[in-house]
Amino acid sequence: MNVSSNTPKSEQIRIGYSLSLSGPVAENTKSARLAHQIWEEDINARGGLLGRKVQLICVDDHGDAQQVSGIYRDLLDKEKVDLVIGGYGTNTIGASLPLIMERKKFLIGLMGLGVNSTLKYSRYFAMIPTGLTPNSSLTESFFELAASQEPKPKTVAILTADAEFSRNPVLGARENAAKYGLEIIYEQTYSLDTEDFSPILSELKTIDADVLFLCSYLKDSVGLVRAVNAGDYRPKMVGGAMIGPQSASVKKELGPLLNGFVNYEYWMPVPKMDFPGVADVLSRYQARAKIENVDELGFYVVPLAYSQLQVLEQAVTATGSFDDEILAEYCRTNSFETVMGTIRFGEGGEWAEPRVIQVQFQNVDNSELETFKDSHAQVVVAPAKYASGSLIYPYTPGN
Questions:
Q1: What is the phi/psi pair of residue 61, to 5°?
Q2: Which segments within the chain are labelled E, that is strand?
Q3: What's the pLDDT at 171?
Q4: CB-based contacts of 117: which residues, under 8 Å, 6+ apart?
Q5: What is the pLDDT of residue 6?
Q6: Which residues of the chain have pLDDT under 70?
């Protein structure tokens, strides 16, 4: 790891963590890593934390949850880091928590969905903006939007990857379907190794549910979008909890095939989400992204990853301390001004108020990156407080 200054190691603040820089979510985690590096450069240009330069020590966990505990143990015992932060996703953050709890460390995770729901560890905080009920909040606006259409859809088919990450979103989908009066008439999982989705789509055509809810990973999201377009099953609304359509490479690969799909996001370049500083951070990120071979847009991960360290920075600065309990207590009782806007934490370290948006791809007529740099092709359709346009309903390929 290259040290970002000539300051002796003993005078630096060393912050350790793991990220899945290789493996199935590497495209997203590399984006987070670059956002962290930009924050590191920014904080050190301002003199560091409490007058001490900062060094981030990031270890690749390869997306393997079994490696995570050992990585954090080494960071604490061998590297003697001053602070730790959480990794990227549900699996790896969850794997780190037993050791973090044992050592009574303060931890801000990134995209872990509901990882503290049962543990209720008081020194854990989440950057994923899914609020106090993360499982349901991720997709509530998707189901609320569906239920508000005329004629109202009545039935739902749920199709999800057979993987750890999909379990919590599916629990939330079931809850939301019931809440908004939609009947789930079909539910199936598929292997992450699936390459041909046409047999599944043929079965779905027979079921003919009004709403097709998908919870998929990057590679299979691409396969599902292609299969839906190629088949003749036409749900009235499709999408929901797909990991992939947020990615610049997936957008460029699929282009117009994405039209009509509705999916969750956390930030979009719309006026109501132009929080102070976010445009500047994304501009600097995008200027380096192509050179460093990471996601060229950064909308999905960068604002949250940069905010993750802004929260840490503000807690340390305000308390004048690196003590884990002091930092945790500050986070429990104060709000933070970040490039994701004002953040306040509630029970379980989740955001006190959710900020999940639903985006529909509309009028995409090419696969150029420029098409996806503004909100013309990615319209925020819910919730109303962040909306930039209206839902095109029912789903029709090409719209």
A1: -95, 0
A2: 13-19, 54-60, 83-84, 107-109, 124-126, 155-161, 183-190, 211-216, 237-242, 262-265, 335-338, 341-344, 357-361, 378-382
A3: 95
A4: 134, 135, 348
A5: 41
A6: 1-10, 399
